[in-house]
């Protein structure tokens, strides 16, 4: 029970690679996938933002999230008011 299963060890080893992989140069990514970058290439993030239209997808996610939360708050508040009126009417009738 003291040893970590292989799957968890592999996951722990790959998490930093997933965070630092965009900072690697393309050639360094293929030869040293799990290593830390020696030079930081932030232009990969810029290229992903511009070429893959990430800004549009980010805005879409914000719109969907905000509208979903607003709808949830409106429905929950309406149900709370109706429940309160129902309980008040039931208390007055008894």
Mean pLDDT: 77
- Provide the domain count: 2
Helix content: over 70%
Number of strands: 0
Strand percentage? under 5%
Number of helices: 4
Whole-angstrom Rg: 26 Å
From the structure provided, what is the oligomeric state, counting identical versus distinct chains?
single chain
N→C terminal distance: 62 Å
Secondary-structure element string: HHHH
Structural class: mainly alpha
Largest sheet: none
Characterize the overall form.
Answer: rod-shaped
Low-confidence stretches: none
Describe the structure.
The chain has about 90 residues and is mainly alpha-helical. The chain has two domains: about 50 residues, no CATH class; about 40 residues. It has four helices and no strands. It is rod-shaped and about 80 Å long. The model has no long low-confidence stretch (mean pLDDT about 75).
What secondary-structure arrangement, pairings included, does this model have?
Blueprint: H1 6-20, H2 26-31, H3 43-51, H4 54-93
Summarize the structure.
The protein is mostly helical and 94 residues long.
Provide keyphrases for this structure.
94 residues; 4 helices; mainly alpha
């Amino acid at each position: 029970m003291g040893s970590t299963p292989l799957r968890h060890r592999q996951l722990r080893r790959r998490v930093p690679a997933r965070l630092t992989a965009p900072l690697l140069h393309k050639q360094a990514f293929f030869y040293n996938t799990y290593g830390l970058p020696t030079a930081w290439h932030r232009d990969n993030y810029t290229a992903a933002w511009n070429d893959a239209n990430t800004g549009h997808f980010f805005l879409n996610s914000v719109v969907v999230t905000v509208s979903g939360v607003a709808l949830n708050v409106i429905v929950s508040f309406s149900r709370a008011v109706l429940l309160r009126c129902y309980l008040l009417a039931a208390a007055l009738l008894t």
